[in-house]
Amino acid sequence: MEYWQFLKLTDLLRVHITKKTTNYRCTITAEERLTVTLRFLITGCSFKNLSFNFRMGISTVHSIIHETIRVICDVLMPIVMQMPDEEMWEKVSRDFFNIWNFPNCLGAIDGKHVNIQAPDNSGSLYYNYKNFFSTVLLAVVDAKYSFLIVDVGSYGKNSDGGILQNSKFWKKLNTNKLKLPPNKPLPSTTESLPHVFIGDEAFPLSNNILRPYPREQARTELSKKVFNLRLSRARKVVECAFGMLTQRFEIYQKRMKIQPKYCDLIILATTCLHNFLIENRTPGQENEFHSNINLLTAITDNNNENSSNSDAVLTTRNKFKDYFSSSGALDWQDEVATRVS
């Protein structure tokens, strides 16, 4: 975070985190409060460490961090992570096509396990398949690595697909309350297809969610391997967003020794700060993020296809597959697809 970004953030939060000075004491300034909170998020320092560094009481540091994190969520979320409307979805779709050559795409979806200390009396609820205790961040990310929708607080033992199907996002998607744009033909075609979210093999194939073809099918048919390649290339934005989040906020690189309800606020606050930094980055930085992500592998390890998929849903994926092998083909895709085992 550059100094001008820090000043802009302070101005947004100042009214909410400034305390009143009295005859008995001088208050800790808004700048100091925000500095303590950002130091906690960026370095993952303990409250005791921050207490020594800033010469404050441990209880003071504790209250400052919890209050400021809550304010960050309340103030920044309506600004940098507002619920998308149809116009915003259209912009996201254009960005995915212009940057990642994937039309009618509204976002990449994935889950991230956040390492936490096992909560008291929680049993195995938070114990995940990676053999540590976690809470899950489920996110939809746009073409420029900003978080569009986040769902936090799910148990670590749950799968990404299970978390998705119990999320508010899934319920709104299935009840047509996300204000998605109407169906639109892919470039150079005439048949209208729905706008879609893209995910890996952990997510179910549905009318508005695309996942890769199973490995066995892709191995024997080049067009399916090309589809997996193109989908993976666009889907990498969510993986990169999680990577950027982890590098910016080192608290994700350590075990959070905090109650789950406070972990959820920390995760929400860091995603808001991540979006704030992307929206307010130095001119010229935007192209740096896209320059090194071009040809990425796309083969899934899952050989199983959900047998409950309807013919209409399978047809939608097949239409995208045919488009990527015909009018939407890229010069390099066949060579890369045949090189991938």
From TrEMBL:
Q: Which GO terms describe its molecular function?
A: hydrolase activity; metal ion binding; nuclease activity
Record bears the keyword Metal-binding: yes
Which Gene Ontology terms of cellular component type are present?
Answer: nucleus
InterPro entries, from UniProt?
Answer: HARBI1-like, HARBI1_dom
Keywords assigned by UniProt?
Hydrolase, Metal-binding, Nuclease, Nucleus
Which segments constitute the DDE Tnp4 domain? 109-275
- One family name in Pfam for this protein: DDE_Tnp_4
The UniProt entry lists the main location of this chain as nucleus
> Subcellular localization, per the record?
Nucleus
Obligatory cofactor(s): a divalent metal cation
Highest taxon listed in the record's lineage: Eukaryota
Which family does the entry's similarity section mention? Answer: Belongs to the HARBI1 family.
Cited PANTHER family? NUCLEASE HARBI1-LIKE PROTEIN, PTHR22930
The name on file for this protein is: DDE Tnp4 domain-containing protein
